[in-house]
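Researcher: I'd like a structural prediction for the single chain below. Treat it as a standalone chain; there are no partners to consider.
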Amino acid sequence: MLYPIYVYKEDGSAYGAAFPDFPGCFAAADELKDLPGAAQEAVEAHFGADEDPVPAPSTPDVWSDNPDYQGGFWMLVDIDLAQVRSRAVRLNISLPEGLVQRIDAVAKQRRLSRSAFLALAAEHEMAET
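Model: Treating it as a single chain, here is the predicted structure.
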C-alpha cells in the first residue's frame, strides 16, 4: 500500500523520513533512492510484535498544514503489509479440484508454493479495488 512519508534533509546529514500515519516511526538513508527500503524496514520494526491493526494510508494533503511537516517534501512509498504482519495463519478452504490443479501447475512454474501463489493472487485482486 502507498503510504506518505515526509522527507527532510539537513546539510551534511542523511535523508530522514517521518510517517504521519505511524506516529513515532522514522526512517533514514544516505541516498534518496534507498529511502523506500529503509521505510519498509522501519515499518516492520515499528509494528514488530504489536497486534494493533496497521492504519490505512492517508494522503499528503491531509498533513500539508501541520507545522511538523514543513520545509521538506512528500514521497509515497509502497509498504508491503504482508512483511509487516508476516505471521502465517492456517486456514481450511474448499476449491474445485480442477482449479487446484491449475493453481499448482502455475505455482510450480513460478517456483512458488500453493500458499504463496494464493496469497499473491489475493493481494493482486485486492489491489485492483
